[in-house]
């Protein structure tokens, strides 16, 4: 049979056997032939080669702690009220129509309907009747009912909820009933490939057990500011939200929250909130009824490879400080725009999204050491953590498009650097481009369409405040800085720019 018709599994077998044959050479011979170090040997314990033989005993002891959560709410109707049809006396459909049309009456007696949803949760404190679930399971609910595997039902009240991590804490009064509770494990200790078990209420089918592995960690699915999900291929469907993800010791290492699915059913891509992230949130919700997150008071950007090269960092790491919030915890010069935070309270900041999560998990008022890279040198500063307020803080006003008559004004002439026509920022240009009085630097008056500046989205009216972390006030200074960077063999120039309202941000432009 020609090789092109060989099944994929057969081709893989040939490749594997070839690899085994190569590995059969003595280590010294391999090293002599190739000059490379021998590959490390991976030893798999016999008990783990086929996965767990059964999770029956584990599941049996945990099913009683996992609950089904049913919620209901009245919502306004979307159209004119339809009268109930007249039915013959004694019709067997009378009760059905009574219930249907009565439930369509919304708040205030207007047209409406009754909506119900299902989710999952689990008991973490049997004595106090405390249950954990997702916020989206109970959001806007008028009534919350908790159903146990033995058929018992209890009304629940909300102790606290957090929209940013999608967590909620409920409380029931079980009376004389003895509840089963579960404990949290350490999600930071799990590894990709570890076996996990989910229990929940998919599609209203309570007490459903599924098994899989940890497929990935530290997943960011853009659902919130603190995304750090565990990904698993254990079957998770609608209704599993809020249910626990257990390790093989029966400890909760995740709270099932989301899936990716074009069909609405499981395709083996589910996400769970790690227990190490959830524990502090749950503790605060129980104690205060709200979260009390730490706040550093900085605006940050990712450190790209270009930014790392322009700052002399070597590899891309940390979080680039683009601005400092006025009257915030570090509005005293401890941390300034252009600094790169690489370590916070002893924890490495690998990428930008690590910093908000770690800061938020820090106690308000605590003094911590922060390692920053400033102008190529590492420095350590001590900062006192403030409290992040839940209400949204408006940053800068939305920028309006320039007036049509701007194009009719006389063009501003000046030197062109990296595709940008530059000029000193005077009163006339402040008025023309509506630049705030507190903004200082060199204004960009034109941008060549095919330039590196245009590729990065720089527009007329942007103001260059710094080049390579040095303040500039004239076009000549900008040109000199770029020329100096070329002379040093740098490939990128780091520009700190300001919007017309004073919002600072960084861009890197290629100079080679």
Q: What structural category do the secondary elements indicate?
A: alpha+beta
Rg (C-alpha, Å): 30 Å
Low-confidence stretches: 1-30, 391-408
Q: How far is the N terminus from the C terminus?
A: 54 Å
What fraction, in percent, of the residue positions are helical?
10-25%
Helices, by number, come to 11
Largest sheet: 7 strands, antiparallel
Count of strand segments:
28
Class of the largest domain in CATH?
Answer: Mainly Beta
Q: What number of domains?
A: 4
- Global shape: elongated
Mean pLDDT level: 81
Lateral strand order in the biggest sheet: 5-4-1-2-3-7-6
CATH topology of the largest domain: Thrombin, subunit H
**Beta-strand percentage?**
25-35%
Q: Which architecture of the largest domain would the CATH scheme give at its second level? A: Beta Barrel
What does this 3D model show about the protein?
The protein is α+β, with helices and mostly antiparallel strands. The protein has four domains: 3-33, no CATH class; 59-73 and 111-291, Beta Barrel (Thrombin, subunit H), CATH 2.40.10; 295-387, Roll (Pdz3 Domain); 412-510, Pdz3 Domain. Helix content is 19%, strand content 31%. It is built from eleven helices and 28 strands. The strands form five sheets. Strands 5-4-1-2-3-7-6 form a seven-stranded antiparallel beta sheet. Strands 22, 23, 24, 25, 26, 27 and 28 form a seven-stranded antiparallel beta sheet that branches. A six-stranded antiparallel barrel has the order 8-9-10-13-12-11. Strand 4 (143-147) and strand 5 form a beta hairpin. It is elongated, with a radius of gyration of 30 Å. The chain starts with 7 loop residues before the first helix and ends with a strand. The model is unreliable at 1-30 and 391-408 (pLDDT under 50).
């Amino acid at each position: 049979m020609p090789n092109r018709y060989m099944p994929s599994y057969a081709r893989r077998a040939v490749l594997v056997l070839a690899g085994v044959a190569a590995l059969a050479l003595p280590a010294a011979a391999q090293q002599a032939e190739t000059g490379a170090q021998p590959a490390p040997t991976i030893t798999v314990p016999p008990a783990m080669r086929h996965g767990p033989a059964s999770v029956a005993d584990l599941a049996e002891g945990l099913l009683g702690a996992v609950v089904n959560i049913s919620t209901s709410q009245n919502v306004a109707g979307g159209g004119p009220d339809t009268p109930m049809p007249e039915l013959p006396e004694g019709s067997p459909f009378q009760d059905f129509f009574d219930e249907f049309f009565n439930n369509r009456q919304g708040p205030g007696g207007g047209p409406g309907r009754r909506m119900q949803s299902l989710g999952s949760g689990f008991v973490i404190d049997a004595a106090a009747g405390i249950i954990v679930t997702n916020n989206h399971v109970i959001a806007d609910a008028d009534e919350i009912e908790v159903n146990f595997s033995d058929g018992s039902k209890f009304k629940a009240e909300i102790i606290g909820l957090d929209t940013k991590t999608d967590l909620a804490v409920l409380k029931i009064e079980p009376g004389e009933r003895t509840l089963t509770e579960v404990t949290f494990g350490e999600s930071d200790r799990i590894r990709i490939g570890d076996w996990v078990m989910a229990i929940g209420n998919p599609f209203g089918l309570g007490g459903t057990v599924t098994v899989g592995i940890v497929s990935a960690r530290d997943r960011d699915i853009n659902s919130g500011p603190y995304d750090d999900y565990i990904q698993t291929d254990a079957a998770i469907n609608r209704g599993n939200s809020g249910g626990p993800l257990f390790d093989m010791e029966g400890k909760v290492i995740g709270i099932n929250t989301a899936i990716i699915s074009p069909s609405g059913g499981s395709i083996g891509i589910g996400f769970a909130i790690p227990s190490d992230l959830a524990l502090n949130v749950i503790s605060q919700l129980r104690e205060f009824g709200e979260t009390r997150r730490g706040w550093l008071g900085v605006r940050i950007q990712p450190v790209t490879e270009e930014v790392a090269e322009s700052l002399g960092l070597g590899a891309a790491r940390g979080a680039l400080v683009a601005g400092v919030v006025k009257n915030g915890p570090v509005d005293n010069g401890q941390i300034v725009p252009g600094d790169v935070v690489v370590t916070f309270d002893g924890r490495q900041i690998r990428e930008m999204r690590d910093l908000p999560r770690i800061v938020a998990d820090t106690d308000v008022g605590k003094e911590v050491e922060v390692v920053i890279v400033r102008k190529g040198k590492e420095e350590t500063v001590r900062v006192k953590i403030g409290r992040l307020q839940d209400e949204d803080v408006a940053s800068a006003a939305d920028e309006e498009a320039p007036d049509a008559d701007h194009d009719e004004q006389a063009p501003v002439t000046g030197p062109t650097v990296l595709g940008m026509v530059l000029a000193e920022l005077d009163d006339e240009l402040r008025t023309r481009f509506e630049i705030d009085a507190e903004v200082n630097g060199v204004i960009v008056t034109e941008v060549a369409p095919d330039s590196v500046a245009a590729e990065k989205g720089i527009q007329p009216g942007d103001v260059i405040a710094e080049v390579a972390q040095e303040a500039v006030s004239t076009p000549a200074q900008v040109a000199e800085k770029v020329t100096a960077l070329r002379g040093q063999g740098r490939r990128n120039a780091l520009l700190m720019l300001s919007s017309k309202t004073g919002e600072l941000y960084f861009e890197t432009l290629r100079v080679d």
